[in-house]
Write a structure and sequence with these properties.
The protein is α/β, with parallel strands linked by helices. The chain contains 14 helices and eight strands. Strands 2-1-3-4 form a four-stranded parallel β-sheet.
Length: about 300
């Protein structure tokens, strides 16, 4: 039996062959080393993400997450719910908090859930994976498993919006959260100390609807990483990873820049530091390849 077990909500982007499938691959590899078992919520559904806020209405949006919460509660009420996706974590935690605090909303949500034979009572906490790493495992234990220190690699820790506000990570500054910098340092790499775009917005879904605005934001995020001497950017958010990686080529054409910086998940750099191969942490799924990390991963 694993030392720690959690109900796991992977979210749509982590599905096989989806945009963040390498996030789940690397998270599982990391958890394997740390003796963490992630019990996937059976038959989970989409949290609604942006569309739930735009046109879905409050109750339908909350009911989407309430269904996942109710299933997790039915399966393992003693286990916290953990998400890796920032949007999934935000939507699920908001639903949990709103329903617990508002008896009318809870009653209405349960009326909807009753049609599927479910009931929700808000017995579990909803947490981001980085909260589990920091609070339940701890930095010292995370460092104990390092086999291949990431020496000679400089990394900009890009937190983004959704893992920073409104909830954030307990004990961290909203303006200058340090946990990614600490994880980078523990893995043997060098963090960019004064990365002034670490909590800046990447534009989110504006990448599709208003690409010029989003790309202007992404340009500043990437440029600040280069200014800090970074070899790569690391993030806990699938939307941030997607936007900041895939639009660099378009930004180069528009602004006559020469950006080509890898954008990875914290779980990928941790997996490599823990001795996993490139494939085991999903480095083969990157559009901009992290060559330095791949070379280290394949060393004997």
């Amino acid at each position: 039996m694993a030392k720690k077990e959690y109900m796991f909500y992977p979210g749509c982007s982590s599905e096989r062959l989806a945009s963040a499938s390498n996030y789940e691959i690397s998270a599982q590899a990391m958890c394997d080393v740390l003796d963490i078992r992630l019990n996937e919520i059976p038959d989970w559904n989409c949290c609604g993400a942006s569309i739930g806020y735009a046109v879905g209405g409050e109750l339908p949006r909350l009911a989407l997450s309430a269904r996942n919460l109710a299933i997790a509660e039915r399966e393992h009420p003693e286990q916290d719910i953990v998400a890796t996706c920032a949007a999934c974590w935000l939507a699920t935690r908001e639903a949990r908090d709103r329903l617990e605090e508002d008896g009318v909303l809870m009653r209405e949500a349960n009326e909807a859930l009753a049609e599927a034979g479910l009931k929700y009572e808000a017995k579990q906490r909803v947490r981001h994976m980085v909260e589990v790493l920091i609070e339940d495992v701890g930095y010292e234990e995370l460092g104990r498993h390092v086999k291949k220190p990431l020496s000679g690699i400089k990394i900009a820790g890009y937190v983004g919006c959704q893992t920073n506000r409104p909830f954030g990570i307990e004990g961290e500054s909203f303006e200058n959260p340090k946990y990614l910098d600490k994880l980078v340092e523990i893995m043997g790499a060098e963090p960019v100390e004064k990365y002034d775009k670490k909590v800046a917005c990447c534009g989110g879904a504006l990448g599709f609807s208003e690409p010029e605005k989003s790309q202007a934001l992404i340009k500043d995020i990437v440029e600040a990483a280069y200014d800090g001497g970074a070899d790569m950017i690391v993030t806990p958010c699938p939307m941030c990873q997607l936007n900041v990686e895939i639009y660099q080529n378009q930004i180069n054409k528009k602004y006559r820049t020469k950006f080509e910086i890898p954008v990875l998940y914290y779980s990928q750099i941790m997996g490599v530091a823990y001795g996993k191969t490139s494939k085991e942490v999903g480095l083969d799924g990157q559009i901009i390849r992290a060559r330095k990390l791949e070379e280290l991963a394949e060393k004997g």
